[in-house]
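USER: Study each token:
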Amino acid sequence: MAMSVRGEMEKLSMEQLKAVKEQTDLEVNLLQDSLNNMRTATTRLKLASSALHDLSLRPTGKKMLVPLTASLYVPGTL
């Protein structure tokens, strides 16, 4: 199969080869972006899992401050 693709590629004009390269570059960039998004999601999931584990170790009824924004907290109870 690789020989077939190579043979077909050799028959393409320079313009066609440029178009194939551009399309391939776009696909590689899309895959790289998707991989980066997956890595970011994995990191966030690990952080959330760790936070939930930490909360599960605290006694029920414990008073705490709950962040609503980066600078605004409200009182809460576990």
Summary: The chain has one domain: 1-77. Strands lie at 63-67, 73-77.
